[in-house]
Amino acid sequence: MTRARQGVPIEAVLGAIHVAERAIWARAREMGRAEGVSAERLLDARELYDDWADAVRGRLISAHRATKTPADPRAGSRDAAILRRLLQGGSAAALAVAEAGLPADDGLWVLVARPGFDERALREQPPVVCTIVDDLFVGVLSRAPSVPATAGLAGPAAPDEMAPVRRLALAALITAESTGRTGVVHIADVAWQAALTARADLAAALLDRHRHAWANLGPNAEPVAHAVLAWLESDRDVTVAGGRLFVHPNTVRNRVRRFTEVTGIDPAGTFGAVNAWWLCRTWLREAT
C-alpha cells in the first residue's frame, strides 16, 4: 500500500518481485547442487514457494487497487494506460490484466467502436476496461457484451493476444459499417466479408476486370448493383429483396439476370455469389 500511495505502478512492484525470484532460485539451485539436495526436493520447495508467492501477489494487487482507486479520479487515463499495456502483449499484458481485475481464465473479449460510443451500457457489465485509444473506443471484457450501438467484437483470447484480437475487432467494425449491420458484430459472423474488405488490391483487380460491364449498364448500373446485393443478402428471396428496395420481385429478377449477362458472373452459385457481392459492393463504394 505504501508503494501505491507513492505512485509506484503495480507492474513495477511485481516486476521487481519477479527479478528477485529469479535471483533467489538461481542461488537455490547452486546451493542445492553443492549440498547434494535432490532435484525432486528442490521442485517440491519451488511448488510450495509458488503457492505462497501467488497469494502474496494477489494481496499486493488487491491492496494496490484499493489504495489507488479513490485517489485517482481519472478513470479514463487509468484505463488507457492499462489498455496500452494489454495491447503490448507478453508479461506487460498479464500484469495489466491483474491490475484491472479482469478474470482471464476463460479468455478476454475486445470491443472496438467509433468515438462517441456510449460506454455506460458497457460499464454496467463489469469487469471492463474501456477508453479511447488511437482515435477508437476500445473495451476489454471478460464476457461477450450486449449493447445496442454498432461495434466490432473479437475473442475470447489469452491476455497476450489482445493486439491481434483488437485488429480483428476493428475489422469486424469496418465490415459492419460497410454492410449496414448494427449492434455488436463478432468477427466470426462476418469473416469472409472482412477478408474481402481488407484486400483493396484484389477489389481493384475485380473492378478493373468488370469496368466495361459497369459502363454497359449505363444509368441502370447502380439499381442493378443494389438489386444483386439485396437479393444475395436476402438469401436469394426476390420477394424480400423487392421489399427492401420497394420494387416488384420481377424487377429484382430482371436486374439480377442483367448483371449476369454483362459480367458473366452467376450469383446463383456459391463462388459466383461471393464475386457478385464483392463486385457490387465495390461498384457502389466507387460510385459514391
From TrEMBL:
| Matches recorded under InterPro entries | PucR_C-HTH_dom, PucR_C-HTH_sf, RsbRD_N_dom
Q: Can you give the residue ranges of the RsbT co-antagonist protein RsbRD N-terminal domain?
A: 2-68
Q: Name one Pfam family in it.
A: HTH_30
Q: What domain of life?
A: Bacteria
Domain PucR C-terminal helix-turn-helix stretches: 227-278
What protein name is recorded for this chain?
Answer: PucR-like helix-turn-helix protein
> What organism, scientifically named, is this protein from?
Actinoplanes xinjiangensis
